[in-house]
Write a structure and sequence with these properties.
Largest sheet: 7 strands, antiparallel
Strand order of the largest sheet: 6-1-2-5-4-3-7
Distance between the termini: 98 Å
C-alpha cells in the first residue's frame, strides 16, 4: 500500500518527525500536534523534517495524516521578528567601519544630550539612517553634529559618475554608428532610386524608338553619339544601346559591336 501523501512518522522517544510529501511551515517555538499529543518544535530542518525540543511522549506513529502545526512561536509575532532582524542587522553594522554608541529614533536622540563629547548616535527612523556625533557637552541639542546619511545615492559617488559617463559615451558612440549606418543605407536606397529613374527616363526618351526590320544589332549611324536609345530588334528582345564615340554598347546584354 502506498504511503499517504502529507503524512508523518515519529517514533516514541525520538526527537525527529519525518514527513512524506509534506511542506512543513514551522519555526522554533511552534507546536506539533498528533493524536492529542503536543510537542514543542525546536527547528524546522526541511520541508519534510522537524526536530522536537523534547523526545516524543506519544506512541510511535507512521503514515499519520491527522497532524497539525500550531504557529505559537515568537517568530510569528511581528514585533519580536522585527526586533530580532533589526538586532541582527545592527550587530553586522556595528562590526563595520562606522561605530556608534547608541541607536534609536531621531526623536529619542534627546535622551542622549548629556553624553560626553565624541559620543555617537545612530538614528534609524525616519529613513535614511543618520549618524550624529556629540561635538560638545552642554546637555543641549545643539551639541550634536549635523546628521550624516548612511544611505548615499549611487550616482553621487565618483566611481558611479565615471561609470555613468562611460556608459553615456558608449551609448552615444553606438547611436552615432547606427545613425551613420542608417544614412549610408538611405544613400544606397536613393542611389538605386535615382538609377531606376534614369533608366525610366532613358526608356521614355527613346523617341522615336528604333525598330530594325532585320534581326541584327543596330549600327552606329542609327544612334547619335553620346546618346542612349531603346532598340527593339525584330525577332529579338529589347535593350538599351549607347553610342560611345562610334562604338555601340548593349547596356542590357554586355558586349560591344
Amino acid at each position: 500500500m502506498a504511503v499517504p501523501l502529507n503524512s508523518v512518522a515519529v517514533a516514541a522517544g525520538s526527537l525527529i518527525v519525518t514527513g512524506y510529501a509534506t511542506t512543513f511551515v514551522a519555526a522554533e517555538g511552534d507546536l506539533f500536534v498528533l493524536d492529542g499529543f503536543v510537542a514543542l518544535i525546536a527547528s524546522r530542518d526541511s520541508a519534510s523534517q522537524l526536530t522536537l525540543r523534547h523526545a516524543w511522549s506519544g506512541p510511535s506513529r507512521t503514515e499519520a495524516t491527522a497532524w497539525e502545526i500550531a504557529p505559537f512561536g515568537p517568530y510569528w509575532r511581528s514585533t519580536s521578528t522585527t526586533n530580532r532582524q533589526l538586532s541582527a542587522l545592527l550587530a553586522r553594522f556595528s562590526a563595520g567601519p562606522v561605530k556608534f554608541d547608541a541607536v534609536g529614533t531621531l526623536a529619542e536622540r534627546s535622551a542622549q544630550n548629556g553624553q560626553g563629547k565624541g559620543f555617537t548616535y545612530l538614528a534609524i527612523d525616519p529613513e535614511p539612517w543618520q549618524i550624529f556625533v556629540k561635538l560638545a557637552n552642554t546637555n543641549s541639542a545643539s551639541d550634536w553634529s549635523s546628521g550624516q546619511s548612511l544611505q548615499v545615492r549611487v550616482e553621487l559617488t565618483a566611481e558611479a559618475q565615471a561609470a555613468r559617463d562611460a556608459a553615456a559615451s558608449s551609448a552615444a558612440t553606438a547611436g552615432s554608428g547606427a545613425a551613420i549606418a542608417t544614412d549610408k543605407a538611405a544613400i544606397a536606397v536613393q542611389a538605386a532610386a535615382d538609377a531606376q529613374a534614369a533608366a525610366a527616363q532613358a526608356v521614355a526618351g527613346a523617341v522615336p524608338a528604333l525598330v530594325l526590320a532585320k534581326p541584327t544589332a543596330p549600327i552606329a549611324a542609327e544612334i547619335p553619339a553620346g546618346t542612349v536609345r531603346f532598340v527593339r530588334v525584330a525577332g529579338g528582345r529589347p535593350s538599351l544601346w549607347f553610342n560611345d564615340g562610334g562604338t555601340l554598347v548593349d547596356l542590357f546584354n554586355p558586349g560591344t559591336f
